[in-house]
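User: Need the bound-state model for flavin-adenine dinucleotide:
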Amino acid sequence: MDFNDTPEEAAFRAQARAWLEANAPLRSAQDRDPDPLGERIDEATLKAAQAWQKRKADAGWACIGWPEEYGGRAATPMQSVIWSQEEARVRTPPNIFLVGHGMCAPTIMAHGTAAQRQKWLPKLLSGEEIWCQLFSEPGAGSDLAGLRTSVVRDGDDWVLNGQKIWATGAQFCDWGIIIARHDPNVPKHKGLTFFVIDMHAPGIEVRPITQINGGHGFNAVFFTDVHIPDSHRLDDVGAGWRVAITTLMNERATVAGAGGGAMENLLQLTEELEIDGVPAIKDGALREKVAEFYVRSKGVELTGRRTLSALSQGKMPGPEASLVKLVGVRLTQEISAYAMELQGLAGVILDGALTPDAGRWQQRYLGVPGMRVAGGTDEVLRNIIAERVLQLPPEMRFDKDIPFKQVPTGPPSSSAERPRK
Ligand SMILES: Cc1cc2nc3c(=O)[nH]c(=O)nc-3n(C[C@H](O)[C@H](O)[C@H](O)COP(=O)(O)OP(=O)(O)OC[C@H]3O[C@@H](n4cnc5c(N)ncnc54)[C@H](O)[C@@H]3O)c2cc1C
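Assistant: Bound-state model below.
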Protein backbone atom coordinates (compact mmCIF):
# COMPACT_ATOMS: atom_id res chain seq x y z
CA MET A 1 0.00 0.00 0.00
CA ASP A 2 1.56 3.32 -1.08
CA PHE A 3 0.10 6.37 0.70
CA ASN A 4 1.81 8.98 -1.47
CA ASP A 5 0.25 10.51 -4.57
CA THR A 6 1.51 9.05 -7.82
CA PRO A 7 2.87 11.75 -10.20
CA GLU A 8 -0.49 11.71 -12.03
CA GLU A 9 -2.41 12.02 -8.76
CA ALA A 10 -0.16 14.89 -7.61
CA ALA A 11 -0.80 16.71 -10.91
CA PHE A 12 -4.55 16.17 -10.50
CA ARG A 13 -4.40 17.43 -6.90
CA ALA A 14 -2.61 20.61 -8.02
CA GLN A 15 -5.23 21.21 -10.73
CA ALA A 16 -8.13 20.69 -8.28
CA ARG A 17 -6.48 22.89 -5.62
CA ALA A 18 -5.89 25.70 -8.10
CA TRP A 19 -9.54 25.78 -9.18
CA LEU A 20 -10.83 25.57 -5.61
CA GLU A 21 -8.54 28.31 -4.30
CA ALA A 22 -9.57 30.56 -7.19
CA ASN A 23 -13.25 30.00 -6.43
CA ALA A 24 -13.59 29.76 -2.61
CA PRO A 25 -11.77 31.12 0.47
CA LEU A 26 -9.62 28.77 2.57
CA ARG A 27 -11.31 27.43 5.74
CA SER A 28 -10.12 28.75 9.09
CA ALA A 29 -10.22 27.13 12.54
CA GLN A 30 -13.15 29.37 13.45
CA ASP A 31 -15.36 28.10 10.61
CA ARG A 32 -18.23 25.88 11.66
CA ASP A 33 -18.09 22.27 10.58
CA PRO A 34 -20.07 21.53 7.42
CA ASP A 35 -23.73 20.62 8.04
CA PRO A 36 -24.20 17.61 5.76
CA LEU A 37 -27.54 16.61 7.28
CA GLY A 38 -29.01 20.03 6.53
CA GLU A 39 -30.00 20.54 10.14
CA ARG A 40 -29.86 24.31 9.95
CA ILE A 41 -30.81 25.01 6.38
CA ASP A 42 -32.71 28.19 5.65
CA GLU A 43 -33.70 29.52 2.22
CA ALA A 44 -30.48 31.54 1.83
CA THR A 45 -28.19 28.59 2.73
CA LEU A 46 -30.14 26.35 0.38
CA LYS A 47 -29.66 28.78 -2.50
CA ALA A 48 -25.94 29.17 -1.66
CA ALA A 49 -25.47 25.37 -1.64
CA GLN A 50 -27.23 25.05 -5.01
CA ALA A 51 -25.19 27.94 -6.46
CA TRP A 52 -21.89 26.30 -5.36
CA GLN A 53 -22.92 23.00 -6.89
CA LYS A 54 -23.89 24.75 -10.16
CA ARG A 55 -20.54 26.57 -10.24
CA LYS A 56 -18.69 23.28 -9.91
CA ALA A 57 -20.94 21.69 -12.56
CA ASP A 58 -20.31 24.52 -15.04
CA ALA A 59 -16.54 24.09 -14.57
CA GLY A 60 -16.67 20.27 -14.81
CA TRP A 61 -15.88 19.70 -11.11
CA ALA A 62 -19.24 18.31 -9.91
CA CYS A 63 -19.57 14.56 -9.23
CA ILE A 64 -16.32 14.01 -11.08
CA GLY A 65 -16.53 10.20 -10.86
CA TRP A 66 -19.78 10.11 -12.89
CA PRO A 67 -19.79 9.22 -16.59
CA GLU A 68 -19.37 12.17 -18.95
CA GLU A 69 -22.86 11.70 -20.47
CA TYR A 70 -24.42 12.88 -17.17
CA GLY A 71 -21.98 15.77 -16.64
CA GLY A 72 -19.12 14.01 -14.78
CA ARG A 73 -15.56 13.49 -16.00
CA ALA A 74 -15.25 9.72 -15.39
CA ALA A 75 -12.56 10.38 -12.76
CA THR A 76 -10.99 7.41 -10.94
CA PRO A 77 -12.16 6.65 -7.35
CA MET A 78 -8.76 7.92 -6.13
CA GLN A 79 -9.25 11.22 -7.98
CA SER A 80 -12.68 11.57 -6.35
CA VAL A 81 -11.05 11.08 -2.94
CA ILE A 82 -8.38 13.67 -3.75
CA TRP A 83 -11.07 16.12 -4.86
CA SER A 84 -12.98 15.62 -1.56
CA GLN A 85 -9.78 16.17 0.46
CA GLU A 86 -9.06 19.37 -1.43
CA GLU A 87 -12.65 20.65 -1.27
CA ALA A 88 -12.58 20.15 2.53
CA ARG A 89 -9.78 22.78 2.70
CA VAL A 90 -12.01 25.58 1.43
CA ARG A 91 -15.09 27.22 2.90
CA THR A 92 -18.21 26.00 1.08
CA PRO A 93 -21.93 25.94 1.88
CA PRO A 94 -23.21 22.69 3.47
CA ASN A 95 -23.32 19.73 1.11
CA ILE A 96 -27.05 19.16 0.96
CA PHE A 97 -26.49 16.68 -1.87
CA LEU A 98 -24.88 13.94 0.25
CA VAL A 99 -27.95 11.66 0.05
CA GLY A 100 -28.64 12.48 -3.60
CA HIS A 101 -25.10 12.04 -4.88
CA GLY A 102 -23.96 9.36 -2.41
CA MET A 103 -27.00 7.07 -2.40
CA CYS A 104 -29.74 8.01 -4.92
CA ALA A 105 -27.48 8.51 -7.95
CA PRO A 106 -25.58 5.20 -7.67
CA THR A 107 -28.93 3.44 -7.30
CA ILE A 108 -30.36 5.09 -10.43
CA MET A 109 -27.16 4.35 -12.36
CA ALA A 110 -27.27 0.67 -11.40
CA HIS A 111 -31.01 0.01 -11.78
CA GLY A 112 -32.53 2.80 -13.92
CA THR A 113 -33.30 2.65 -17.63
CA ALA A 114 -31.37 4.91 -20.03
CA ALA A 115 -34.39 7.28 -20.11
CA GLN A 116 -34.58 7.41 -16.30
CA ARG A 117 -30.86 8.14 -15.97
CA GLN A 118 -31.10 10.97 -18.53
CA LYS A 119 -34.21 12.37 -16.81
CA TRP A 120 -32.78 12.59 -13.30
CA LEU A 121 -28.97 12.47 -13.18
CA PRO A 122 -27.93 15.72 -14.92
CA LYS A 123 -30.16 17.90 -12.68
CA LEU A 124 -29.00 15.98 -9.62
CA LEU A 125 -25.39 16.63 -10.62
CA SER A 126 -25.93 20.35 -11.23
CA GLY A 127 -27.73 20.79 -7.91
CA GLU A 128 -30.91 22.01 -9.62
CA GLU A 129 -32.87 19.23 -7.92
CA ILE A 130 -32.36 17.89 -4.39
CA TRP A 131 -33.07 14.30 -3.36
CA CYS A 132 -33.88 12.35 -0.20
CA GLN A 133 -34.11 8.70 0.89
CA LEU A 134 -37.47 7.38 2.14
CA PHE A 135 -36.70 3.94 3.58
CA SER A 136 -37.15 3.83 7.38
CA GLU A 137 -40.54 3.49 9.02
CA PRO A 138 -41.55 3.65 12.68
CA GLY A 139 -41.53 -0.19 12.74
CA ALA A 140 -38.83 -0.86 10.15
CA GLY A 141 -35.28 0.49 10.51
CA SER A 142 -32.58 -2.17 10.94
CA ASP A 143 -35.19 -4.66 9.77
CA LEU A 144 -35.99 -2.58 6.69
CA ALA A 145 -37.60 -5.50 4.83
CA GLY A 146 -40.36 -5.43 7.48
CA LEU A 147 -41.72 -2.15 6.07
CA ARG A 148 -45.49 -1.62 5.72
CA THR A 149 -45.96 1.35 3.37
CA SER A 150 -48.05 -0.11 0.54
CA VAL A 151 -48.34 0.40 -3.22
CA VAL A 152 -51.21 -0.86 -5.34
CA ARG A 153 -51.24 -0.88 -9.14
CA ASP A 154 -53.83 1.45 -10.72
CA GLY A 155 -53.60 1.50 -14.55
CA ASP A 156 -50.36 3.27 -15.55
CA ASP A 157 -49.87 4.46 -11.98
CA TRP A 158 -49.24 3.04 -8.53
CA VAL A 159 -51.07 4.37 -5.46
CA LEU A 160 -48.97 4.75 -2.33
CA ASN A 161 -50.16 4.89 1.30
CA GLY A 162 -48.18 4.83 4.55
CA GLN A 163 -45.54 6.62 6.58
CA LYS A 164 -41.76 7.02 6.45
CA ILE A 165 -39.56 8.55 9.15
CA TRP A 166 -36.07 9.99 9.70
CA ALA A 167 -36.00 11.22 6.09
CA THR A 168 -32.99 13.57 6.03
CA GLY A 169 -33.64 16.80 4.15
CA ALA A 170 -37.13 15.80 2.94
CA GLN A 171 -38.38 19.29 3.89
CA PHE A 172 -36.50 20.85 0.95
CA CYS A 173 -36.30 17.97 -1.55
CA ASP A 174 -37.71 17.68 -5.04
CA TRP A 175 -37.39 13.91 -5.45
CA GLY A 176 -37.07 10.87 -3.20
CA ILE A 177 -36.24 7.21 -3.55
CA ILE A 178 -38.77 5.01 -1.81
CA ILE A 179 -39.32 1.32 -1.19
CA ALA A 180 -42.84 0.00 -0.58
CA ARG A 181 -44.72 -3.29 -0.31
CA HIS A 182 -46.76 -4.32 -3.35
CA ASP A 183 -47.42 -7.92 -2.21
CA PRO A 184 -47.93 -9.02 1.42
CA ASN A 185 -48.59 -12.63 0.36
CA VAL A 186 -44.94 -13.51 -0.27
CA PRO A 187 -41.95 -13.52 2.16
CA LYS A 188 -40.95 -10.06 3.31
CA HIS A 189 -37.95 -9.48 1.04
CA LYS A 190 -39.85 -10.58 -2.08
CA GLY A 191 -42.94 -8.33 -1.97
CA LEU A 192 -41.09 -5.01 -2.31
CA THR A 193 -40.87 -2.59 -5.24
CA PHE A 194 -38.69 0.52 -5.56
CA PHE A 195 -39.74 3.92 -6.97
CA VAL A 196 -38.60 7.47 -7.51
CA ILE A 197 -41.22 9.80 -6.07
CA ASP A 198 -41.97 13.45 -6.84
CA MET A 199 -41.91 15.13 -3.42
CA HIS A 200 -44.27 17.87 -4.69
CA ALA A 201 -47.02 15.34 -5.62
CA PRO A 202 -50.46 15.75 -3.99
CA GLY A 203 -50.98 13.59 -0.88
CA ILE A 204 -47.45 14.01 0.58
CA GLU A 205 -47.10 15.71 3.96
CA VAL A 206 -43.61 16.41 5.35
CA ARG A 207 -43.34 17.10 9.08
CA PRO A 208 -39.90 18.20 10.38
CA ILE A 209 -38.65 16.59 13.62
CA THR A 210 -36.74 18.79 16.11
CA GLN A 211 -33.57 17.21 17.51
CA ILE A 212 -31.71 17.43 20.82
CA ASN A 213 -29.19 19.86 19.30
CA GLY A 214 -31.94 22.24 18.14
CA GLY A 215 -31.55 21.31 14.46
CA HIS A 216 -34.21 19.71 12.30
CA GLY A 217 -32.49 17.52 9.74
CA PHE A 218 -35.07 14.73 9.91
CA ASN A 219 -38.69 14.47 8.87
CA ALA A 220 -41.67 12.21 9.20
CA VAL A 221 -43.34 11.88 5.79
CA PHE A 222 -46.96 10.80 5.34
CA PHE A 223 -48.44 9.48 2.07
CA THR A 224 -52.17 9.45 1.36
CA ASP A 225 -53.23 8.05 -2.03
CA VAL A 226 -50.12 9.41 -3.74
CA HIS A 227 -49.95 8.53 -7.45
CA ILE A 228 -46.58 7.40 -8.86
CA PRO A 229 -46.33 6.77 -12.62
CA ASP A 230 -45.08 3.28 -13.47
CA SER A 231 -42.32 4.98 -15.50
CA HIS A 232 -40.86 6.06 -12.12
CA ARG A 233 -40.38 2.45 -10.96
CA LEU A 234 -36.71 1.39 -10.69
CA ASP A 235 -36.06 -2.16 -11.88
CA ASP A 236 -38.71 -4.93 -11.86
CA VAL A 237 -41.82 -5.27 -9.76
CA GLY A 238 -40.66 -7.34 -6.78
CA ALA A 239 -36.98 -6.37 -7.22
CA GLY A 240 -37.19 -3.68 -4.53
CA TRP A 241 -34.92 -5.43 -2.03
CA ARG A 242 -32.17 -5.91 -4.61
CA VAL A 243 -32.34 -2.20 -5.49
CA ALA A 244 -32.36 -1.20 -1.80
CA ILE A 245 -29.18 -3.22 -1.19
CA THR A 246 -27.39 -1.04 -3.77
CA THR A 247 -28.53 2.07 -1.88
CA LEU A 248 -27.55 0.63 1.52
CA MET A 249 -24.05 -0.40 0.39
CA ASN A 250 -23.45 3.10 -0.89
CA GLU A 251 -24.98 4.62 2.27
CA ARG A 252 -22.51 2.78 4.53
CA ALA A 253 -19.53 4.01 2.53
CA THR A 254 -20.96 7.57 2.49
CA VAL A 255 -21.59 7.67 6.27
CA ALA A 256 -18.21 6.03 7.07
CA GLY A 257 -16.47 8.78 5.08
CA ALA A 258 -18.32 11.67 6.75
CA GLY A 259 -17.41 13.54 9.93
CA GLY A 260 -13.61 13.06 10.05
CA GLY A 261 -11.08 15.55 11.35
CA ALA A 262 -11.75 15.24 15.11
CA MET A 263 -8.17 14.19 15.95
CA GLU A 264 -6.62 17.13 14.08
CA ASN A 265 -9.08 19.51 15.75
CA LEU A 266 -8.23 18.07 19.20
CA LEU A 267 -4.48 18.55 18.67
CA GLN A 268 -5.14 22.15 17.64
CA LEU A 269 -7.35 22.74 20.69
CA THR A 270 -4.70 21.40 23.09
CA GLU A 271 -2.16 23.80 21.59
CA GLU A 272 -4.48 26.81 21.91
CA LEU A 273 -5.95 26.13 25.38
CA GLU A 274 -3.87 26.94 28.46
CA ILE A 275 -3.66 25.14 31.82
CA ASP A 276 -2.09 27.32 34.54
CA GLY A 277 -0.72 29.66 31.89
CA VAL A 278 0.95 26.87 29.90
CA PRO A 279 -0.36 25.35 26.61
CA ALA A 280 -2.49 22.33 27.55
CA ILE A 281 -0.45 20.04 25.30
CA LYS A 282 2.53 20.40 27.72
CA ASP A 283 0.57 18.65 30.51
CA GLY A 284 1.80 15.06 31.04
CA ALA A 285 -1.56 13.43 31.87
CA LEU A 286 -3.23 15.19 28.95
CA ARG A 287 -0.44 14.11 26.59
CA GLU A 288 -1.00 10.49 27.63
CA LYS A 289 -4.73 10.71 26.86
CA VAL A 290 -4.18 12.51 23.55
CA ALA A 291 -1.53 9.93 22.55
CA GLU A 292 -4.03 7.13 23.19
CA PHE A 293 -6.62 8.86 20.96
CA TYR A 294 -3.93 9.40 18.33
CA VAL A 295 -2.96 5.73 18.21
CA ARG A 296 -6.60 4.68 17.86
CA SER A 297 -7.35 7.29 15.22
CA LYS A 298 -4.32 6.17 13.20
CA GLY A 299 -5.66 2.60 13.36
CA VAL A 300 -8.98 3.78 11.93
CA GLU A 301 -7.27 5.90 9.29
CA LEU A 302 -5.02 3.07 8.11
CA THR A 303 -7.91 0.62 8.01
CA GLY A 304 -9.79 3.20 5.91
CA ARG A 305 -6.81 3.31 3.55
CA ARG A 306 -7.46 -0.32 2.70
CA THR A 307 -10.75 0.85 1.21
CA LEU A 308 -8.90 3.52 -0.75
CA SER A 309 -6.38 0.99 -2.00
CA ALA A 310 -9.19 -1.34 -3.08
CA LEU A 311 -10.97 1.55 -4.83
CA SER A 312 -7.82 2.70 -6.61
CA GLN A 313 -7.37 -0.86 -7.94
CA GLY A 314 -10.96 -0.84 -9.22
CA LYS A 315 -12.24 -3.25 -6.52
CA MET A 316 -15.36 -2.92 -4.33
CA PRO A 317 -14.71 -1.92 -0.69
CA GLY A 318 -14.93 -4.91 1.68
CA PRO A 319 -16.28 -5.27 5.24
CA GLU A 320 -13.55 -2.90 6.50
CA ALA A 321 -16.03 -0.06 5.75
CA SER A 322 -18.18 -1.47 8.60
CA LEU A 323 -15.12 -1.60 10.88
CA VAL A 324 -14.15 1.97 10.08
CA LYS A 325 -17.65 3.24 10.79
CA LEU A 326 -18.04 1.18 13.98
CA VAL A 327 -14.71 2.17 15.57
CA GLY A 328 -14.23 5.61 13.99
CA VAL A 329 -17.59 7.11 14.88
CA ARG A 330 -17.34 5.94 18.48
CA LEU A 331 -13.85 7.42 18.73
CA THR A 332 -15.16 10.77 17.48
CA GLN A 333 -17.75 10.67 20.25
CA GLU A 334 -15.06 10.03 22.92
CA ILE A 335 -12.76 12.73 21.53
CA SER A 336 -15.64 15.23 21.52
CA ALA A 337 -16.48 14.46 25.15
CA TYR A 338 -12.83 14.93 26.13
CA ALA A 339 -12.56 18.23 24.22
CA MET A 340 -15.66 19.54 26.02
CA GLU A 341 -14.14 18.52 29.35
CA LEU A 342 -10.96 20.44 28.49
CA GLN A 343 -13.01 23.57 27.84
CA GLY A 344 -14.12 23.62 31.47
CA LEU A 345 -17.33 25.61 32.04
CA ALA A 346 -17.51 26.60 28.37
CA GLY A 347 -17.83 22.88 27.58
CA VAL A 348 -21.47 22.85 28.58
CA ILE A 349 -22.44 25.83 26.40
CA LEU A 350 -23.93 25.08 22.99
CA ASP A 351 -23.93 28.66 21.65
CA GLY A 352 -20.99 28.87 19.23
CA ALA A 353 -20.52 32.60 19.96
CA LEU A 354 -19.60 31.83 23.59
CA THR A 355 -17.33 28.78 23.20
CA PRO A 356 -13.83 28.16 21.83
CA ASP A 357 -13.91 26.51 18.38
CA ALA A 358 -17.34 28.03 17.54
CA GLY A 359 -19.24 25.30 19.41
CA ARG A 360 -17.77 22.62 17.15
CA TRP A 361 -17.28 20.05 19.91
CA GLN A 362 -20.70 20.49 21.45
CA GLN A 363 -22.37 20.10 18.05
CA ARG A 364 -20.24 17.07 17.27
CA TYR A 365 -20.94 15.43 20.62
CA LEU A 366 -24.68 15.81 20.12
CA GLY A 367 -24.60 14.80 16.45
CA VAL A 368 -22.33 11.74 16.64
CA PRO A 369 -24.80 9.35 18.31
CA GLY A 370 -26.90 9.74 15.15
CA MET A 371 -23.95 8.58 13.06
CA ARG A 372 -23.78 5.44 15.22
CA VAL A 373 -27.33 4.70 14.04
CA ALA A 374 -27.45 5.95 10.43
CA GLY A 375 -26.25 3.59 7.70
CA GLY A 376 -26.37 0.57 10.05
CA THR A 377 -26.37 0.73 13.88
CA ASP A 378 -23.33 -0.38 15.90
CA GLU A 379 -25.09 -3.67 16.70
CA VAL A 380 -26.02 -4.35 13.09
CA LEU A 381 -22.44 -3.63 12.00
CA ARG A 382 -21.19 -6.05 14.66
CA ASN A 383 -23.53 -8.68 13.22
CA ILE A 384 -22.08 -8.05 9.74
CA ILE A 385 -18.51 -8.28 11.03
CA ALA A 386 -19.34 -11.45 13.00
CA GLU A 387 -21.01 -13.17 10.05
CA ARG A 388 -18.97 -11.96 7.06
CA VAL A 389 -15.52 -11.34 8.55
CA LEU A 390 -15.31 -13.80 11.45
CA GLN A 391 -17.57 -16.39 9.75
CA LEU A 392 -19.59 -16.94 12.93
CA PRO A 393 -23.01 -18.65 12.63
CA PRO A 394 -25.70 -16.30 11.25
CA GLU A 395 -28.37 -14.66 13.38
CA MET A 396 -31.68 -16.58 13.60
CA ARG A 397 -34.15 -15.10 11.10
CA PHE A 398 -37.48 -16.77 11.83
CA ASP A 399 -39.58 -14.62 9.47
CA LYS A 400 -37.47 -14.98 6.34
CA ASP A 401 -39.48 -17.61 4.50
CA ILE A 402 -43.08 -17.07 5.58
CA PRO A 403 -45.61 -14.80 3.81
CA PHE A 404 -45.27 -11.26 5.16
CA LYS A 405 -48.90 -11.06 6.22
CA GLN A 406 -48.31 -14.01 8.59
CA VAL A 407 -45.40 -12.32 10.38
CA PRO A 408 -46.57 -11.64 13.96
CA THR A 409 -46.76 -7.93 14.71
CA GLY A 410 -47.03 -7.96 18.50
CA PRO A 411 -47.21 -10.14 21.59
CA PRO A 412 -49.38 -13.25 21.00
CA SER A 413 -52.09 -12.15 23.38
CA SER A 414 -51.99 -8.43 24.04
CA SER A 415 -54.64 -6.89 26.26
CA ALA A 416 -56.28 -5.40 23.14
CA GLU A 417 -56.91 -8.89 21.74
CA ARG A 418 -58.08 -10.47 25.02
CA PRO A 419 -61.87 -10.64 25.32
CA ARG A 420 -63.11 -8.06 27.80
CA LYS A 421 -65.14 -9.26 30.73
C1 LIG B 1 -28.43 10.80 11.25
C2 LIG B 1 -29.46 9.88 10.66
C3 LIG B 1 -29.92 10.07 9.37
C4 LIG B 1 -30.88 9.21 8.85
N1 LIG B 1 -31.36 9.48 7.59
C5 LIG B 1 -32.29 8.65 7.07
C6 LIG B 1 -32.85 8.92 5.77
O1 LIG B 1 -32.50 9.93 5.11
N2 LIG B 1 -33.78 8.09 5.29
C7 LIG B 1 -34.20 6.98 5.97
O2 LIG B 1 -35.01 6.24 5.44
N3 LIG B 1 -33.72 6.71 7.21
C8 LIG B 1 -32.79 7.53 7.77
N4 LIG B 1 -32.31 7.28 9.05
C9 LIG B 1 -32.86 6.17 9.80
C10 LIG B 1 -31.90 5.00 9.97
O3 LIG B 1 -31.76 4.30 8.76
C11 LIG B 1 -32.46 4.11 11.08
O4 LIG B 1 -32.48 4.87 12.26
C12 LIG B 1 -31.62 2.88 11.27
O5 LIG B 1 -31.78 2.00 10.19
C13 LIG B 1 -32.00 2.12 12.58
O6 LIG B 1 -33.36 1.86 12.60
P1 LIG B 1 -34.28 2.27 13.85
O7 LIG B 1 -33.99 3.69 14.21
O8 LIG B 1 -35.68 1.92 13.51
O9 LIG B 1 -33.77 1.37 15.05
P2 LIG B 1 -34.11 -0.18 15.29
O10 LIG B 1 -33.83 -0.94 14.05
O11 LIG B 1 -35.48 -0.28 15.87
O12 LIG B 1 -33.04 -0.55 16.37
C14 LIG B 1 -33.25 -0.29 17.76
C15 LIG B 1 -32.08 -0.89 18.51
O13 LIG B 1 -32.10 -2.33 18.33
C16 LIG B 1 -30.85 -2.78 17.83
N5 LIG B 1 -31.04 -3.87 16.88
C17 LIG B 1 -31.91 -3.90 15.83
N6 LIG B 1 -31.79 -5.07 15.16
C18 LIG B 1 -30.81 -5.77 15.78
C19 LIG B 1 -30.22 -7.05 15.54
N7 LIG B 1 -30.61 -7.81 14.53
N8 LIG B 1 -29.23 -7.46 16.38
C20 LIG B 1 -28.82 -6.67 17.43
N9 LIG B 1 -29.37 -5.47 17.70
C21 LIG B 1 -30.33 -5.01 16.87
C22 LIG B 1 -30.27 -1.56 17.11
O14 LIG B 1 -28.87 -1.64 17.02
C23 LIG B 1 -30.74 -0.41 18.01
O15 LIG B 1 -29.87 -0.26 19.10
C24 LIG B 1 -31.37 8.13 9.61
C25 LIG B 1 -30.91 7.94 10.90
C26 LIG B 1 -29.99 8.80 11.44
C27 LIG B 1 -29.55 8.58 12.86
